[in-house]
Amino acid sequence: MSISPFAPKPHTPFQWAGQLPRGEMARRNQELERQLRRLTRVLDRARAARPVTRTNTGFMSADSYQAIMAQRPAIMRASVGIDYAQYTTGVLAFDYERLLADTGYDIDATHKVQRATAVGDTPLVELHNITELVRAVAPPGKGARLFVKDEAANPSGSFKDRRASLSVHEAVKRGYPGVAAATSGNYGAAVASQAAKAGLGCIVVQEAFDSQAIAQPEIAEKTRACEAYGAEVIRLSVGPEQFYVFLCVLRDTGYFNASLYTPYSILGIETLGHELAVQTREQAGRFPDLVIATHAGGGNVTGTARGLAAAGAGDSCMVGASVDLAGLHMASDHDFNRKSFTTGHSGFSMPFTTWPDRADVPRNAARPLRYLDRFVTVSQGEVFYITQVLAELEGLERGPAGNTSLAAAFVLAQELDRERIIVVQETEYTGAGKHPIAQLNLARRMGVAVTRGDPRDDRPGARIVIPEQPAQLRVVDVDLDHVRRSYLRNALASLPEHAQLSDIDIEFLAAETRGGCAFVEETIDELQAEAG
Ligand SMILES: Cc1ncc(COP(=O)(O)O)c(C=O)c1O
């Protein structure tokens, strides 16, 4: 349940100032309370002048899982405002480009919406000192220049503001009373921040803790951020009910579904790819050779690659990087707190890359396999290590999510000649719950060993190994052909009984996997032969 910032507080903000003389402290408190009362009156008047409903649902829906799932198509249509059925062109195929185009937002329109709420136009920073460190460990002549797009400069501290901006703008335009999102990460704060500015209600449904009520520190921090922005947060323990609860919320409130996977969310990220291409050319005289994005649900890779192409930088190599959490199960109560990262890890990126349509909207606009040129993983310990390197060498305390791609960039820069340019496509803000110490303390509490040594010895859920020196960092390449095959296996499994794939479906699958029609047909034959 959220607490309004204007409700009476159990403590006053000047309580910390114990050093002040008693009378002075009381005077300051009175002054502050007077100011808050005045601000409350101003806000109340502003709200009364604007017909905006702020609901507090108290979330009381009592319908069964089956009853809510049966209403799913109707709830989706009402809450996203998109008739997905009209984009269906085959058994599997749908007109992906038209789905995006019909929103009416091109890069210029998106920039305009984002500038109105101070989203985007973040700095591109050259990491001179880390580049020097790369060159100290790279073979002679190698060591590309490293840049980072400082997305922490967005209002709620991450690139997720770009995603939230168009959804909230669209919700206002269509007269929805509020927005809702199912997310435990930065996106909740982004939606809450944008909703606060637009004067809309906001509900965030989080998977926040395990069955022992032990919270992930990073998620607990997001709860506080969402509530600070005035959102109502529904916190759940790990399990399958998040989607059910989310559907209930959408149905009971009539709020807009600000899903991470709508076309609005993906188009919002295109400005990031576009800006970084333009800024790199301005600062370094050319487009980046390689852009690397921390990869989970796939929107980051998708939107960035599309934005690069729109800027004329479609030849830049698009790399996705995830923290390797192989062996840990995302929906497992046991594993929930044994992972030290809540996003940007293989537990999300593998299932979403091999089957994007597992999302909370009928068709997912994030389709990373269409855009990935290379996909690598790094270990948890390597990300903690580079987080400290970024702070100590560049004076930037950021992360953890963006530092997943920075850890990979540190290694990939050693493969490229010195005049080449790598852009790490984001940072995120850091805070107490996101700090390595908070995550490492939780890991120890959960029985995960934390040691220094060779990161090859890292074992998700059992041992976090923080490198002892920079030359120990490495990446592991994910076999994209293997991923394509898994995608096609999932596509076949999703087919209704007796359904036949048409040429349109084959062409769609070829675009999805970037494998060509012959590859798709051959692989499907092989998979069907394997299945007997
Ligand atoms: C800061 C940050 N970077 C990267 C990602 C990964 O983005 P995506 O899920 O679109 O792949 C997330 C998503 O949770 C994030 O919060």
Topology:
Elements: H1 22-49, H2 65-70, H3 72-80, H4 96-101, H5 107-115, E1 124-126, H6 128-137, E2 145-149, H7 160-173, E3 178-182, H8 186-198, E4 201-209, H9 217-228, E5 232-237, H10 241-253, E6 256-257, H11 263-284, E7 290-294, H12 299-310, E8 317-323, H13 333-336, H14 346-354, E9 374-378, H15 380-394, H16 401-412, E10 421-424, H17 436-445, E11 449-453, E12 463-467, E13 476-477, H18 480-493, H19 503-513, H20 516-531
Parallel strand pairs: 2-10, 3-4, 3-6, 4-5, 7-8, 7-10, 8-9, 11-12
Antiparallel strand pairs: 1-2, 9-13
Helix pairs in contact: 5-11, 7-8, 7-11, 8-9, 11-12, 15-16, 18-20, 19-20
Bound molecules: pyridoxal-5'-phosphate.
What can you see in these coordinates?
This protein is α/β, with parallel strands linked by helices and 532 residues long. The protein has 4 domains: 13-49; 65-103 and 158-261, 3-Layer(aba) Sandwich (Rossmann fold); 115-157 and 264-476, Rossmann fold, CATH 3.40.50; 480-531, no CATH class. Helix content is 46%, strand content 12%. It has helices at residues 22-49, 65-70, 72-80, 96-101, 107-115, 128-137, 160-173, 186-198, 217-228, 241-253, 263-284, 299-310, 333-336, 346-354, 380-394, 401-412, 436-445, 480-493, 503-513, 516-531; strands at residues 124-126, 145-149, 178-182, 201-209, 232-237, 256-257, 290-294, 317-323, 374-378, 421-424, 449-453, 463-467, 476-477. The strands form 3 sheets. It has a 7-stranded mixed sheet with strand order 1-2-10-7-8-9-13, sandwiched between helices. It has a 4-stranded parallel sheet with strand order 5-4-3-6, with helices on both faces. Strands 11-12 form a two-stranded parallel sheet. Helix 9 links the parallel strand 4 and strand 5 (232-237). Helix 11 crosses helix 12 (299-310), helix 15 (380-394) packs across helix 16 and helix 19 packs across helix 20 (516-531). The longest helix has 28 residues, at 22-49. The protein is globular and about 85 Å long. Bound molecules: pyridoxal-5'-phosphate. Pyridoxal-5'-phosphate is lined by residues 158, 160, 185-186, 294-300, 343-344, 401-402, 426, 428.
